[in-house]
Structure formats: C-alpha cells, structure tokens
Design a protein that fits this description.
With 251 residues, the chain is mainly α. It has 11 helices and no strands. It has one domain.
C-alpha cells in the first residue's frame, strides 16, 4: 500500500504537468457552462413553465446535466485512453512487468486520478451554476448522483476499450474523438435536450452520455425516475468493461 501511495502521488504530479489536459478535464466544463449562462441572454431568461418546482429558474438550468455529461465524456474519451496507449507505446507497461510493481497498478492509479478529476470538474460546474448563474439545486440529487456514477462507469469502460484497441497514442486520440463528438451531439451540447426532435431523443436515450444527460435532467427537475436510462448505462458498463479488460494489451 505504501508503494501504491507513492505511485499515486508521483503520477498525480505528472498528470498535473499537462496544462492542456488539466484545463479540459477540470476547468472546461465549468467554464463553458458559466460562459454560456453569462454571455447568451436567452440562457439567463426564466423558464416559462408553471409546472417547475422552483420560481423563475434560468433557462441554463436545463443545460447543467448536459455539461456534466460533457465532463464525463471529455475525460473518458480524450484523456484516459491516450494515457494508457502512451504507456503501452513507450514500453512503460512492459518494463513494469519485470519489477515488483505490476503494470495493472499503474492503470489502477490513473483510473483513480481520472475519477477524482471528474468529480472535481462536476462539482465545479454545479457550484459555478448555482452560485454565479442562480441555477436552483436538483430536486432529486440522489437520482442525479446515480446517473452521474453510472455515466462514469459506462464511459470509462468505453474509454478502456478504446485504449485496449489502439496501438498508439495517436490512434487512441483519433478513435476517442470519433466517439466524443457524436456523444456530445446526443447529450444535448449542440441541440438542448428539451428541444431535441423526438427521434433524436429516442436515439439519445440508448447512448451512454445521452442516457446520463436525460437521467440527470429528470433528477434535476424532479420528473419520474429515469429507469430506462439507468438500465441502459448499467448495460453499457456490463458489456464494455469486461470486454475492455479482456482485450487490453500490456505490450
């Protein structure tokens, strides 16, 4: 455990030395949410819906779950797979296999680092939305948290599969981006969830990030429990995680 703790401290310092990675993992979700809420007048206008559980909630409230989904997708598809593929490409995992420190511990440590980064990014986005934009807090925070956790397990499983398939860091980056932008589309980044066409909402429901955004939106506004979305994210995790572990190549 002492060796793992040392490895965790060292790898955290190394992770923090990448300013671009730190920015997009930790700062970007909160920054884009606050910027949109402050710069786009329509996002600051109250939602005209008498069924809302609050009075005069700003329109940007409906975008908070989407930004949380964006945070999950950013780390799981653009950061983590590239790290793992780089370790394989540079022979780090192969060299560790000849030492008392198994390479799986390095992978585990970086999973922990990325999970902590995601929690920080999500918390920063929520705190920024509530304190700066006046967004009301979720009506059902337990449902929001459940969907956030399931989104993390599903998307990290997908990221692990990308890292397992890609031989080099460039391939991991390219494949991650190929999955990243459609994920953002169906999570409501470009077309907000409430105004999506019916067919797009239906497709979104069965994608990991789309299901997460829809589920967190239901929890935020106090709608019915998003059972379908929860089952979809659990199914993605159950399929992708064992597949990623089985296919992962250490050399």
């Amino acid at each position: 455990m002492s060796a793992v703790g040392t490895l965790l401290r060292v790898e955290t310092r190394v992770w923090l030395r990448d300013p671009a990675g730190v920015f997009f993992a930790l700062v970007f979700p909160a920054l884009i949410l606050v910027a949109l809420g402050l710069l786009i007048p329509s996002f600051g206008e109250p939602i005209d819906d008498p069924a809302l559980p609050w009075d005069s909630a700003p329109a940007v409230t409906a975008w908070v779950p989407t930004v949380l989904g964006l945070a999950v997708a950013t780390i799981s598809l653009t950061t983590m797979p590239v790290q793992f593929a780089t370790f394989r490409e540079k022979g780090v995992l192969r060299r560790l296999a000849t030492t008392p420190m198994p390479p799986r511990r390095l992978i585990g440590v970086h999973l922990v680092i990325n999970v902590v980064a995601l929690v920080v990014a999500g918390a920063a986005a929520v705190v920024g939305a509530v304190t700066i934009l006046g967004v009301p807090f979720a009506v059902d925070p337990a449902t929001v948290l459940l969907c956030f956790v399931l989104a993390t397990t599903a998307m990290f499983s997908l990221g692990l599969l990308v890292a397992a398939w890609a031989e080099r860091a460039t391939a991991a980056s390219g494949l991650g981006m190929l999955l990243y932008f459609p994920s953002l589309l169906f999570s409501g980044v470009w077309v907000p969830l409430p105004v999506m066409p019916d067919w797009m909402q239906e497709v979104s429901k069965y994608t990991p990030v789309g299901a997460a955004a829809q589920g967190m939106l239901a929890g935020w506004f106090g709608d019915a429990f998003p059972l379908t979305q929860v089952l979809v994210m659990a199914a993605w995790t159950a399929v992708l995680f064992p597949l990623g572990v089985r296919l992962f190549r250490w050399t």
